[in-house]
Amino acid sequence: MKTILFDGELKLVDSGLEGDYPVLAVGICGTDISMIKGSYKPRKFPLVLGHEFSLEVDGKIKTSEINIVDWTCYYCRKGMYTHCSNRKAIGIDLDGAMRERISLPSYLLHNGTGSPITSAVVEPMAAVLRMVELLRVSPEEEALVLGDGPLGIMSALVLSRLGLHVELKGRNKERLRVAMDMGLQVTNSPSSYDIVIEATGGNAVEEALSHVKPMGKIGLKSTHGMDVKLNQTKVAVEEITLIGSRCGPFYLWDKAASLAKELHVEDMIRVYPLPRFRDAFRDVMERKVVKAVLDMERK
């Protein structure tokens, strides 16, 4: 089957991989880019990338969680299965979805949005909801989101939907234009906020610290694999809470699919047919688009 393989470079190959379900669409994530650049080390090599995707199961559009777990470890028994001691992440530890077909355990599957394209970004929306859940936000709080990529824009959209005053800070004019067209307020202010979301995909923890109020909260969403500088004294003295978050657990996925439709995430997506995968990756790396999604059915 046609497969995008990363073996030091990206290649479209005819692989011997098989699968039960047709893959419909796959989103290109910042983690994919970090693995290509080398800052985030894949735990399988060569590797088929892709952990944000939609697929067809029994004629229905589905989306999928990314963690294969054992259900027997300490964390699984505590209900914290996304932290399974023996978890294997699709597209990181195991071959991912950038191929024509894939096999998955049924416990990973959730209903999509009705669209293969927007269903491919339910996974990052669920991750945003997990971050919001851990931050325990309140409508009276003011929030700043750092980052004009898909996680930044989705974070700002969700926080706004929950009633917070939200501003978005980024550097890419075209991406910021998309954010404004989606109804978000863009800022370059040095102001301080109750909540700061670091979703730049880069090393911006110090920038987040410069914007958070004493006793404020910082949500960390970037998983780039790089070491970062942290002013621990400021964190301690000002009693700032740092909260990391990764994947959305199963109970958030229906809400994530609903919000992906309600918040019109399609407005930040550019769709590429499979043969143009190199264009899609290039445009993401050059920040020419907010979100690139590969349409695996368009040849």
What this model shows, in words?
The protein has 2 domains: 2-124 and 248-295, Alpha-Beta Complex (Quinone Oxidoreductase, Chain A, domain 1), CATH 3.90.180; 128-244, NAD(P)-binding Rossmann-like Domain (Rossmann fold), CATH 3.40.50. It has 10 helices and 18 strands. It has helices at 30-37, 74-77, 116-119, 122-135, 150-161, 173-181, 205-211, 232-237, 253-262, 277-285; strands at 2-6, 10-14, 21-27, 47-48, 52-57, 60-64, 67-68, 88-89, 101-102, 109-111, 142-146, 165-169, 185-186, 193-198, 212-220, 241-244, 269-273, 291-295. The strands form 4 sheets. Strands 3, 5, 6, 9, 10, 17 and 18 form a 7-stranded mixed β-sheet that branches. It has a 6-stranded parallel β-sheet with strand order 13-12-11-14-15-16. The longest helix has 14 residues, at 122-135.
